[in-house]
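In the design runs reported in the main text, the only information available to the sequence generator was the tokenized backbone. The following block is the verbatim input for one such run; it is reproduced so that readers can re-run the procedure and compare outputs position by position.
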């Protein structure tokens, strides 16, 4: 028979064993759930955030996924302007700057006037051409007048000749009729032979006069005059055309045009922006080639980097390249390799590689330091990845916030290779886990400010540290054994009392 006091003692021991504090899982299966009670973290291991606070923080929750990561070759370089998109405008001839038509930073179009110069050389050529042109115009007018006069004379001579021809034809007709009649009478013996001969001679004279009227010398001379006048006119036209040929040829040689006053108009050869304007109004250039301004079209630029000889076999034309610059840390520019150098340069054994980038918004400036990642391949299999924005670096650890109901648990993760905005997760998370991928740093800051209390079911620990804790099943067995011992002890005491009695 059990003694009541012994039973109470056993139950008390069992309760003592069972009430021993034990750590519980913060998030089952992630390997960092147990923590040493003698250590503390700067941030709580679990943070409760209501929906309103989550919305105000702008949290974004996404599942952990597996995917093939791009294999990237990282290097550094700089931004450069495309060679054919940067032009230094210079004075085409010796002269003085009269006008500057654009300001630094202004946008210009191809062919737009940007400056006006006065050139003594071109002024002299223009004056000489104008003198020659005046002489040519005078000769042209004289030739035109001579031609008109010759044409009038020809018309007159043709009229005279026409009248003489009609008269000569009439005389020939009359002489022919008289000759025919005299011949008939002579054959009849009515007229002497002498009269017939006179009629014949008169007929021959009439025919001669007719031929002379038809082939009138004055008409031929008038036609010759017209030909000479026409030739003179053509010569005058040619002289007019050649009067400014030297001037125009010189303008073509220097690649510019001039206005009515002979001033040189400098035009932009490309569409772009005025990067700088060195010339000033009134500035004189003793020789051609003085710099006026630089025009750059940076709608597309090069990201140029040097690739070591050992890595060259990984690089190919057309490969995608992601580029970041220091002044735009949150912006990634994507381009493709368009040029690979053909010569290994210098002691460092590098080859220059250029990737062409779109820069329509003008954010990339020539000379900017750039970080390049050339995408050379992909991982052979899908691996666990998360966005780099999900990782908070604190106290030398990489932390991620895991959603657990209305709370967010702090999980330490081991990271692997990085590719762009993604990073490999080696340990700490599983596929499908819901994590904070946006504004995680703000969530961490909220926890440091004490914006919420740690969950009572979580004990603050330092992740990935081994601790010695008694499992629940061992505690239960210990409690049972303690009860048995207490009962046995009670029975023994009972027997002792009986014996003593």
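Verbatim output:
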């Amino acid at each position: 028979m059990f003694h009541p006091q012994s039973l109470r003692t056993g139950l008390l021991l069992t309760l003592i064993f069972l009430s021993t504090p034990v750590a519980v899982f913060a998030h089952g299966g992630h390997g960092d759930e147990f923590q040493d009670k003698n250590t503390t973290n700067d941030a709580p291991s679990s943070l409760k955030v209501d929906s309103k606070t989550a919305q105000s923080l702008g949290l974004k929750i996404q599942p952990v996924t597996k995917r093939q990561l791009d294999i990237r070759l990282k290097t550094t370089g700089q931004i450069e302007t495309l060679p054919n998109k940067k032009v230094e405008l210079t004075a085409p001839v010796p002269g003085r700057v009269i006008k500057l038509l654009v300001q630094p930073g202004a946008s210009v179009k191809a062919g737009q006037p940007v400056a006006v110069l006065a050139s003594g050389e071109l002024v002299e050529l223009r004056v000489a051409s104008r003198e020659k042109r005046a002489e040519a115009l005078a000769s042209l007018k004289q030739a035109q007048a001579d031609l008109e006069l010759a044409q009038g004379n020809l018309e007159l001579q043709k009229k005279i000749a026409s009248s003489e021809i009609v008269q000569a034809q009439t005389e020939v007709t009359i002489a022919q009729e008289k000759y025919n009649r005299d011949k008939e009478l002579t054959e009849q013996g009515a007229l002497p032979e002498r009269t017939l001969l006179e009629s014949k001679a008169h007929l021959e004279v009439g025919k001669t006069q007719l031929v002379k009227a038809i082939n009138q010398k004055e008409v031929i001379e008038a036609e010759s005059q017209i030909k000479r006048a026409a030739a003179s006119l053509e010569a005058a036209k040619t002289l007019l055309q050649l009067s400014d040929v030297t001037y125009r040829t010189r303008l073509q040689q220097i690649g510019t045009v001039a206005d009515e006053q002979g001033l040189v108009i400098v035009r932009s050869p490309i569409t772009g922006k005025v990067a700088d304007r060195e010339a000033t109004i009134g500035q004189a250039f003793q020789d051609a080639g003085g710099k006026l301004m630089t025009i750059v079209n940076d709608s597309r630029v090069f990201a140029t980097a040097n690739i070591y000889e050992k890595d060259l076999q990984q690089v190919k034309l057309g490969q995608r390249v992601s580029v970041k610059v220091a002044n735009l840390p949150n912006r990634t520019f994507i381009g493709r390799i368009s040029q690979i150098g053909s010569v290994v340069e210098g002691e460092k054994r590098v080859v220059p590689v250029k990737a062409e980038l779109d820069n329509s918004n003008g954010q990339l400036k020539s000379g900017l330091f750039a970080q390049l990642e050339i995408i050379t391949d992909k991982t052979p299999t899908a691996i666990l990845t998360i966005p780099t924005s999900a990782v908070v670096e604190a106290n030398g650890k990489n932390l991620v916030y895991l959603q657990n109901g209305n709370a967010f648990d702090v999980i330490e993760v081991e990271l692997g290779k990085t590719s762009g905005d993604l990073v490999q997760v080696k340990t700490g998370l599983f596929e499908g886990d819901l994590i904070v991928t946006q504004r995680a740093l703000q969530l961490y800051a909220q926890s440091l400010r004490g914006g919420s209390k740690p969950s009572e079911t979580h004990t603050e620990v330092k992740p990935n540290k081994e601790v010695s804790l008694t499992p629940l099943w061992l505690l239960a067995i210990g409690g049972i054994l303690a009860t048995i011992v207490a009962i046995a002890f009670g029975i023994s005491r009972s027997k002792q009392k009986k014996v003593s009695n």
